[in-house]
Design a protein that fits this description.
Layout (H helix, E strand, L loop, with lengths): L1 E3 L2 E2 L4 E2 L8 E7 L2 E6 L9 E7 L2 E4 L29 H16 L5 H16 L22
Antiparallel strand pairs: 1-6, 2-4, 3-4, 4-5, 6-7
Helix pairs in contact: 1-2
Length: about 150
């Protein structure tokens, strides 16, 4: 018969006569509590077709199990966090020194200069801005502006 689930128990519990048996969900239907085998807490406030036998409820028609869970997406390979990628150490140092000197013209706060230079070096390493500190012959083409 079609019944509306008024409430569902928060926890799954076994029946009193079989403490090691399967877990049941408590459902409140027409003011009475019934147990249904399995986790059916998502039935709250829904109308379902159940057969009520004593204190146990069963679905009138067999329920199809849900589709098997899909595997989670593959994680990208581990990286060193926010490490900029430059062809060599000298190129990275050159970029960092350039941005430190350029930002230093506008502020005297040492921490702000370091944070801004770090951000600019990261942006350059990801191709978001053009490497303006290099010779024009070796700088890649693009239309980004460093500031």
């Amino acid at each position: 018969m079609q019944v509306k689930i008024q409430s569902a128990a928060r926890e799954l519990k076994p029946m009193r006569d079989n403490p090691n048996g399967p877990l049941y969900t408590g459902l409140k239907i027409d003011g009475q509590w019934y147990n249904i085998e399995g986790d059916h807490r998502d039935l709250y406030n829904k109308v379902v077709d159940l057969t009520l036998e004593g204190k146990v409820a069963r679905f009138t028609s067999p329920q199809h199990p849900p589709a098997p869970a899909q595997p989670p997406p593959r994680l990208p390979p581990p990286s060193a966090g926010h490490t900029p990628h430059f062809p060599n150490r000298e190129a990275a140092v050159e970029a960092y020194q350039y941005y430190m000197s350029r930002v230093g013209e506008f502020t005297q706060d040492a921490a702000a200069i370091v944070r801004a230079a770090n951000c600019l070096v990261m942006m350059e390493s990801h191709g978001e801005i053009n490497p303006v500190h290099r010779d024009p012959a070796e700088a890649p083409a693009g239309n980004g502006v460093p500031f």
